[in-house]
Design a protein that fits this description.
Blueprint (H helix, E strand, L loop, with lengths): L1 E6 L2 E10 L9 E6 L2 E8 L5 H15 L8 H20 L6 E12 L2 E9 L3 E6 L2 E4 L6 H7 L5 H6 L18 E6 L5 E5 L9 H10 L3 H14 L6 E10 L9 E6 L11
Antiparallel strand pairs: 1-2, 2-11, 3-4, 4-5, 5-6, 6-9, 7-8, 7-10, 9-12, 10-11
Helix pairs in contact: 1-2
Length: 272
């Protein structure tokens, strides 16, 4: 289902799909598609707590962020802190612990114009699509990606590295920092937020082609999940597709492409 909403000057059409996939018995993903925040949470820890951790994160963001108006960096920091606390409470009631990876986009006002704050913890992802170009905004917090970024393994070695998907940050883990980027909202762009169940099964080029050729947001979201299932869908698959239909900029002048941490440190996020 597609929902069209206006936040400040920005009108967007938002659609979401979550699916258990073909191998798992339970869906441990959760999502929040309620502008100004779009969020996917991918629970970890098995059925014992993974689904509860993901839902706790969605509840924390829902409580911390005012709906229907642009949010703020302070509100996002509060939401992330509340999410970390909520997952810790879930973990306290289990024997195996709990955690979750997240990715999201939040609409704020930045220097007087609408802007996105893109953020992630773990290997859930945010992509931007405009025209026929796809950009992966977030950087996976995974062992393979970090070794590749450090120059210790090649792209070819990364593809076959057995521990490439080991997550190095998560909500509820010792390191739960969110890498974040600010960028102006662009007219006509399409934002994709997904759990790792999508890119594990569907290569970026096919994601790009699907977002380019598929019409309404709800059709694009459904087709991406269908592609993952046709490829085996070994994990849960969750996607949010948001189309900016009005109120965005027509050029990216003034874009802040440098990453930052929402925990108020100044260390830049690692780029791919």
């Amino acid at each position: 289902m597609r929902v069209t909403t206006t936040i400040g000057a920005v009108t967007m059409a938002v659609a979401s799909v979550t699916d258990v996939g073909l191998r798992r018995k339970h869906n441990e993903d959760a999502l929040l598609a309620a502008p100004p925040v779009l969020l996917v949470a991918d629970g970890m820890g098995g059925y014992e707590a993974g689904d509860l951790a993901a839902l706790a994160i969605v509840d924390a963001f829902t409580a911390a962020i005012d709906a229907g108006v642009p949010t703020t960096l302070d509100a996002l920091r509060d939401a992330l802190a509340a999410a970390d606390d909520a997952v810790a409470e879930v973990a306290d009631g289990t024997t195996r612990g709990a955690g979750a990876t997240i990715a999201g986009a939040a609409l704020i006002m930045h220097e007087g114009v609408p802007a996105w704050v893109f953020f992630n913890v773990g290997d859930a992802r945010v992509y931007r699509h405009r025209g026929s170009t796809l950009q992966q905004v977030t950087v996976d917090h995974s062992l393979g990606q970090e070794l590749y970024a450090a120059g210790r393994i090649s792209a070819e070695e990364l593809a076959v590295f057995p521990d490439r998907n080991v997550v190095t940050r998560a909500i509820g883990a010792t390191d739960s920092r969110a890498d974040s980027w600010i960028a102006p909202v662009m007219h006509g762009e399409r934002i994709l937020i997904c759990s790792d169940g999508l890119p594990t099964e569907v290569p970026d080029e096919l994601i790009r082609a699907t977002l380019t050729s598929t019409g309404p947001a709800e059709d694009a979201a459904a087709e991406l999940v269908a592609l993952a299932k046709r490829s085996g869908a070994r994990d849960n698959v969750t996607v949010i597709v948001a189309d900016v239909v009005a109120g965005g900029a027509h050029s990216e002048a003034g874009s802040d492409d440098a990453g930052f941490f929402l925990d108020e440190t100044t260390e830049p996020a690692r780029r791919r």
